[in-house]
Amino acid sequence: MERATAETDENLRLARWRRSQIAGDAGNYMSSIHCDDVATAVVAALTVPSGLYNVVDDEPLTRGDYLAAFGAAFGVKAPKPTPARLVRLLGGASADGLVASQRVSNRKFRDASGWAPVYRDARTGWAAVAAARGEG
């Protein structure tokens, strides 16, 4: 069962003000993964040849869709991403990676290990977290 975490609590606190820790344009893509899926991926990684693998859920979402999923799961209005221009102003060139659109595939790891995430995207992941917490 998913326990309340400081990170989820902070995201909820910010969401009540329509703010988020997610940065960048709402139309840019991001990949995520549920913490339970990380745990099973670590175990699966013990069986694969050495190499570089991406371990993410099956469906990257836009930042806007990700935040909409968070809001829907917890019954709050969808928070807005922190504007990319603000992140770039504060972080300089190193911030580009945080705000870039990134679609990442887990296909190589799935093929090598047989692993698959239980939560195929942030929609199902956040819904499970909210249900485990008795919220939403």
Detailed description of the structure:
The protein is an all-alpha fold and 136 residues long. The chain has a single domain (6-131), classed as Rossmann fold (3-Layer(aba) Sandwich). Helices cover 47% and strands 3% of the residues. The longest helix is centred in the middle third of the chain and has 12 residues, at 63-74. It is globular, with a radius of gyration of 16 Å.
Summarize the structure.
The protein is mainly alpha-helical and 136 residues long. The chain is built from seven helices and two strands, in the order αβαβααααα.
What is the 3D shape?
globular
Query: Which structural class should the secondary elements be placed in?
Result: mainly alpha
Question: What is the CATH top level name?
Answer: Alpha Beta
- The total domain count is 1
Return the CATH topology.
Rossmann fold
Assess the beta-strand content as a share of residues: under 5%
Put simply, the count of helices is 7
By CATH's scheme, which homologous superfamily applies? NAD(P)-binding Rossmann-like Domain
Helix-strand string: HEHEHHHHH
First-residue to last-residue Cα separation: 16 Å
Mean pLDDT: 92
Low-confidence stretches: none
Q: How many E-type strands?
A: 2
